[in-house]
Amino acid sequence: MIDKNLVKEIVGEWLTGKDYFLVDVEVSQDNRVVVEIDHADGVWIEDCVELSRFIEDRLNRDEEDFELEVGSAGLGQPFKVAQQYVNHIGKEVEVLTLDGKKLKGILKSVDGEQFVVTVEEKVRVEGKKRPELQATDYSFEMSGVKYCKYLFQV
After folding, report:
1. What is the rounded CA–CA span in Å between residue 76 and residue 20?
2. Residue 96: C-alpha distances to residues 10, 52, 100, 117, 151 (Å)
3. Average pLDDT, the chain
4. Most CB contacts within 10 A, which of 55, 78, 106, 144?
5. pTM surpassing 0.85?
């Protein structure tokens, strides 16, 4: 079986000096290698092809046959690495908490492994008949939510 860490090293070598970053590497039992990369401005197919060739040139098919897929982290897919959070600051995201509560709001900030989402909520204000919309900040640990993902508008 192809070593996942070897693939990560090869990808790391290709990433040097580029604005791309590694999101994930998966290697299945039957040597299907899936590499996900991302970039603040999106991923170009030409760069995926270049990375694919770079990886293929460094792995030996005579020793071990493999299937290789290189692509971008899917739009609307849950974030997997901190850089994805950073790239989406100021954009609308959906968070699913560990207790199953969904929140939609604006990703306000990221600090280390924590992030803050500002949610517009109806809040009952004393002395008023109707609830009013107020912005409320919620702070989360990246590892303390089921997912956080970008909500793209069409």
Report:
1. 18
2. 34, 33, 6, 12, 13
3. 93
4. 55
5. no
